[in-house]
Amino acid sequence: MENRHLLPREKIKSLILFIAILTCVILDVYITFIMGKKIVYSHFFYIPLILAGVWYHTRAIYVAIFLGAIHVLTTFIHMDHGFSIVTLEAIQRALVFIAVAYFVGFVSREHAKSLVLEEKRRVEEVRKSEGKYRSLVESTEDSIYLVDRNCKYLFMSEKHLSRLGLSKGQFLGLSYGDFHSAEETKEFAEKVERVFETGVSLQLEYKSSEGKCYLKTLSPVKDSETGIVTAVTVVSKDITRLKRVENALRASGKKLKETRDYLNNIIASSADTITVVDMKGIVRDWNKGAEGIMGYRADEVVGTSNRKFFADPKEADRIMELVQREGEIKDYRTVVLRKDGKPIHISMSAAVLKDKKGVPIGTVRVSRDITKVVELEARIKAERDNLNLIFESMVDGVYVVSKDYKVEFMNKVLRHEFGNRVGDICYKVFHNREKPCPLCKLQEVMKGKTARWEWNSRRMNKTYDLIETPLKNADGTVSKLTIFRDITERKKAEEEIQKLNRELELKVVDLEEVTRMKSDFLSLTSHELRTPLTPMQAQLQMLQEGYMGRLNEKQEDSIEVILRNLTRLDKLINDILDISRIEAGRIKMSFASMSLNDTVMEAIKMQEPFAKKKDLKISARLAELPNIIGDAERLRQVVSNLLNNAIKFSEKSAEVVVETKQVGDDVLFCITDYGIGISKTDIGKLFKPFSQIDGSMGREHGGSGLGLAIAKGIIQAHSGKIWVESESGRGSTFYFSIPIKQKITEKEVPYIG
Amino acid sequence: MGESETKTIMIVDDEPDVLLSVAQILEANNYRTITAKDGYECLEKLKEEIPDVLLLDIMMPGLTSKEILREIEKDSRFAEMKIIFLTAVHMLEAEEEDLLSLKQVVDFIGKPFTVRELLDSIEKSD
Q1: Among B11, B13, B15, B17, which would you mutate to test the A interface (most chain A Cβ atoms within 10 Å of its Cβ)?
Q2: Within 10 A of A4 (CB to CB), how many other CB atoms are there?
Q3: What residues in A contact B105, CB-CB < 8 Å?
Q4: Which of A155, A623, A650, A718 is most buried, judged by most C-beta within 10 A?
Q5: CA nearest B117: which of B3, B34, B25, B36?
Q6: Chain B: closest CA distance from residue A490 (Å)
Q7: Are the beta carbons of A541 and B28 separated by less than 8 Å?
Q8: What is the DSSP letter of B113?
Q9: Mean pLDDT for chain A?
Q10: What is the C-alpha end-to-end distance of chain B, expressed in Å?
Q11: What is the distance between the alpha carbons of residues A599 and A172, in angstroms, rounded to a whole number?
């Protein structure tokens, strides 16, 4: 630094000296040769001698010898007589020059010496302190360099030298621009300029082309005396790693915040209780779920002991100890108390919470309300206990087997036979096998199926009826419950019965044949019975109608009696035929959509003459009815029969009321008379064939005693019901009802006409 | 009765008394009658003359009514002849025997019959 400053001054010094010597020589030559002065005034030679002496110390003698020689030479040449007094005088003067030069040089040297010593000492001091700084500079990881206003390097630390790939001293004459792009240089130069102007430090970040990052601190170097900025130091710190770490930190910080927000949300919205309890059992955190389940708000419990939550306060210590010992607990069941004192069963999972250094600072606990589960389990257990009680008292064998074939329960009967083998493997206990039985239904039952099957053991020559069904345990697993019964005897009996059944079937076939024959016989009989009736009736009618000539009154009466009884005989034959068909289940029906009211009106019309004879009034109260599916002819037969009965058993001039109505899905017919009525004991046999209550009555009133039995058969063939309500002496009401939507069981018969 | 054209009725019944009685009633009411005591005679007489109405019994020895109907169905000359059953067999049983499906069959009178029923049925048969 010092050298650099001295250089121009040194040049100026020698230049001045050179000009001074040249001027003196020219002046000497001019005065001697042009002016021709004999005595040369060489006093002006003293100026360069003094300058040289002061500046170059003893080396001023060479200048003095040179100037002296010129002076002697010029004097010698000018005199041209050769060596003379003037020459001697010139030599003398030259010697004076030399003496003066030597003196001035000597004095100057001595002075300079003392100055140099002083300087040396100062430099030594500087060097010492500089050495300190330099070692400091060299020992840092940072690059340090010094630039002037034009960004020329004035100094460079080894670090920076190696960074730029230079050896010591090579930087001289190089500037910042030689190693950086124009743009970077421009920016750097601006900053340097600013430091020069303001004298204040500043920093800038710089990213190298290799992707490295540097933080440059530009500080002014001030002249200690003037305070003027002379240079700028640059400390360039490699902050690439720092930057990377910072970026990574910033990114992970963002991620961490997101995660934390997310977790906070989960915790806040969880239906489970999530609490933090410190090592002293003080509640530190209390989420919304905990508020919901426990009834305490967070601000009521945070900072208080957690002992009060447990039905048994010692439980708090037990849990804390357990968590610390195990590190975590899972599904720990305990009972806590709500704020309102209600006990709640919870299932708790907890883990130790540690600080950064791994020192435990508390526990995090997640609990779930399992009161319902516990109640359910208790109920299942109670049910199981009940079931077991029932099983104990059963005569059938009952056992329960777990999914891995372990016997969980055997009832008394089985214990008596096999001994108490609970815990053993079922196929060993019951079958002396080493492998599961080939017919085992365990897998099926595990799938939720109930199996009922018969097991024929040839080994034991026995048959068992087994019911195997899944049984849910309190812990949610499924076991197989088996109930089995020895049905060997029953099986034998069944076989016996089957044999008998087969025999019976054969007999039934025979019987059916008999029934068919009976029916055919009846059919034939009725035909045969009717055959003689037909010409008898025809002939008598011809007589009555006068085909054979006029009859007197007595003859007419006689014929009427015969005809009446013929009709009665015919009716009897028909009734017997009907009842035999009804009893054989072979009554023939012709079903069609029909109006019951029309049928009733028809029947009334037919019975009206008989009513008139007794001066009876038939009142019909017929409601509007939907059509029914029925055999109109047969139903008319029923209604006629009931009407006929009502007329027969009514007093003279009484009333018979006929009603129809819809009741629900049925049509209802009822007929009421105010006659002799029927006693309760007689009602029972009323609808049985040949059951006229009193033989004499039958004769008095005329009738086969089959009418109601036939009516019942017909109504039943319509899927209907027929019944009577009566009070002896006050009259009777007969009812029948027929469903509106009954199925057609026989095909419809087309109307012939 | 007393129409311009006298109807001819053929009565088929195995009971002579029934045949007689029915013929008497019908003749008294101005119908011409032909009688046949069984299915064979019926078919024989049908060859000679086709009556307006055939009064047919169902349960007869020999040729059954079903066989008679089958013969009648085969012959187109009997298309205009009306058939009325006069029988002690129940109508539903007759229906079961598929005796009522022939288009010539117009009525069914149960035995014992009344004179009124018989005459009404024949009168209606046109």
Answers
A1: B17
A2: 9
A3: 752
A4: A718
A5: B25
A6: 47
A7: no
A8: P
A9: 82
A10: 13
A11: 141
B111 interaction partners in chain A (CB closer than 8 Å): 530-531, 533-534
Distance from CA of A746 to the nearest CA of B (A): 11
Dihedral sign (CA B14, B18, B22, B23): positive
Which of A527, A535, A589 lies at the smallest CB-CB distance from B59? A527
Query: Which chain B positions have a beta carbon within 8 Å of A527's beta carbon?
Result: 59, 88-89
Cβ atoms of A686 and A678 within 8 Å: the answer is: yes
Region of B2 please: left (phi>0), alpha (psi -120 to 50) or beta.
Answer: left
Convert the pLDDT of each residue in A95-149 to its tens digit.
Answer: 888 888 888 888 888 887 888 888 788 878 877 776 766 676 667 777 888 888 8
Rounded Cα distance between A93 and B102, Å, is 191
Q: Report the alpha-carbon distance of residue B103 to residue A418 in Å, rounded.
A: 83
Q: In angstroms, rounded to a whole number, what is the distance separating the alpha carbons of residues A163 and A159?
A: 6
Residue-wise pLDDT tens digits, A517-528: 877 787 777 778
- How far is A606 from A720, CA to CA, in rounded Å? 24
Nearest partner of A69 among A97, A103, A106, judged by Cα: A97
**Does the predicted TM-score (pTM) go above 0.80?**
no
Residue A175: phi, psi to the nearest 5?
A: -130, 170
**With an 8 Å Cβ cutoff, are A542 and B95 in contact?**
no
Interface contacts A/B by beta carbons within 8 Å: 74
- State whether B113 and A752 contact (CB < 8 Å): no
Residue B3 has pLDDT above 70, yes or no: no
State the complex-level ipTM.
0.86
Which of A527, A536, A547 is the closest to B24 by Cβ? A547
Distance to chain A for B49, nearest Cα, Å: 25
Least confident residue range of A534-543, A556-565, A674-683, B52-61: A674-683
On the question of pLDDT at A738 being above 70, the answer is: yes
Q: Which A-chain residues 497-526 have CB contacts (< 8 A) with chain B?
A: 523, 526
Q: What pLDDT, in 10s, does the model give residues A685-725?
A: 788 876 655 544 544 455 667 888 889 999 988 889 999 99
Residue A724 near residue A732 (C-beta atoms within 8 A)? yes
The CA-based dihedral angle spanning residues B46, B50, B51, B54, taken in that order and rounded to the nearest 10 degrees: 50
Token pair 């060596």 is at which residue?
A: A83
SS3 at position A282: strand
Q: What percentage of chain A reaches a pLDDT higher than 90?
A: 11
